[in-house]
Amino acid sequence: MSFSQLALPEPILRAVLELGYEHPSPIQEAAIPKLLAGEDLLGQAQTGTGKTAAFALPLLARLDPAQNDPQILVLAPTRELAIQVAEAFQAYARYMPAFHVLPLYGGQNYTTQLKALKRGSQVIVGTPGRIMDHLDRGTLVLDRLRAIVLDEADEMLRMGFIDDVQTIMDATPPGRQVAMFSATMPNQIRAIAQKHLKNASEVKIESKTSTVERIQQRYVMLDNNQKLDALTRILEGEEYDASIIFVRTKSATEEIAEKLGARGYAVACLNGDMNQAHREQTIRRLKADQLDVIVATDVAARGLDVERISLVINYDIPYDSEAYVHRIGRTGRAGREGKAILFVSPRERRLLRTIEHATRQPIEKMSLPTGQVIEQRRIEAFRAQLAQTIEAKNLSFFMDLVNDWREKLETTDIDMAAALLYLAQKDQPLNVASQFPEIREPHSRDRDDRAGGRDKFARGDRPERSGDRAERGDRPPRPRRELKGDYTNYRIEVGKEHGVRAGDIVGAIANEANIDSQFIGNIKLFDHFSTVELPANIPAEVMQHLKKVYVRKQKLNITVDTGSPAAGSAPRRERSEAGPGPRPGAAPRAPRKPRD
């Protein structure tokens, strides 16, 4: 069966085909016709089977475009999954006029959510705790709701949300359509289904395994500012034919593709802003060996099947296991071997464990390729290229030149060959082992690991912070870092109004100037600019390069800071720490007062 046989409206079908979907998965083929017909549905399927499209596509087809009130409510156990589902709805509805979807989850500012609710959204995707908050406040009204979806119902049970789910379902109109999806069917989930689903169809999809067994899966623990360096090492140190790199945002596809292109890679990006013709052209170039690396978002790479792809790199860890399965499924297809590498920060350990649990396969920890490995691979590649040239090319003209030069320069064959080799490798030097220092694994800051239990905020319902940071009790201020050696205060033209964070600045400077983050000093954020302390002996060519670096779509234009900020531009925060640890000689951090 193809998607065109599922009786989906033309705008939705067009979006699906542009996203690369060709044939519905078993859960989609079974669920879409029933939900299109307005039936209630109880679906049992493992992660990675395509559940999101199974309920999103038919429910979008039943929307009333003239109604701006919430018509569909999707409950998800975590904020990460809520965001993922909302993004999927947006992608499927790209050709539906005046469509709005709103994710609601804990940790997000209430003011932002209230403004969005007032503007109106046809689809609400949220975590139970935050949905309950808005129902209690009267800011979310479900009187005109047409359908409610419980996604990963067993996970909501496991995380203690089941009472909230019951309350929310009781608050919805009695005639609404209900779809419930769960990997397992414990008694409490079955009881909810019996209470709220009317004459429901039941669909159960058996899944032998969620991932392809031929894919070698590994992960590396990194801080965000180490990712680009790690990526280039893997692309040089791993054996692969073609690679696809997954990121979360469209802007990241362009940024990383640009940086890899500057490093000499044949690279292009795939994202939702590309039209179908451009997408097809990029895929043709990949198949024709004209590209070796693709940087893509999840939705843009759905349905991508290129035999050359033998390495998948998850630059940004996906928010849910289903997305991870779809990503690594771009390799190891039709019985071929494949490799998948996942970048994980210490705070993302929980997501790593969730993926391992859902896929029922361990993900092995790996070490990044060392400078010696990269150097050896460059030498071997150059030697192979040299052997191919000797065998396949007519070199008589060049032999005559070499003989003539050797006599005129009064040198030996070995000296001549060494000099020519030096000139030939200047763009990609062979002697590089010392240029790749060890990337240290960051210290774990995962609350889950420190406390020995589940992070109580991991479920997506972090309570709202009250008041400004400066007004929260008598917490002592962080001490200013004492810098050793000569440091200069620099001004950069990106500030609070651009949404910049201190970590963005550290990551950009550490990556582009090859400065270890521990040598980046205090950072102050102002409205229109920021200041940063850097070692005074940075080479002039590095400073010229930093002027052209972009952070939050703003060029740094770094200059020596010569004056004080204008009145009224007090810094939001002072970054008194940068990198994995304090510089030697730093003042000890004052103890924090524990939160209630």
TrEMBL record:
It is found in: Cytoplasm. Pfam families: DbpA, DEAD, DeaD_dimer, Helicase_C. Keywords: ATP-binding, Cytoplasm, Helicase, Hydrolase, Nucleotide-binding, RNA-binding, Stress response. This is ATP-dependent RNA helicase DeaD. The lineage of its organism: Bacteria, Pseudomonadati, Pseudomonadota, Gammaproteobacteria, Chromatiales. Belongs to the DEAD box helicase family. DeaD/CsdA subfamily. Residues 1-29 form the DEAD-box RNA helicase Q domain. It comes from Rheinheimera mesophila. Residues 32-203 form the Helicase ATP-binding domain. Residues 227-374 form the Helicase C-terminal domain. DEAD-box RNA helicase involved in various cellular processes at low temperature, including ribosome biogenesis, mRNA degradation and translation initiation. Transmembrane segments: none annotated. Its EC number is 3.6.4.13.
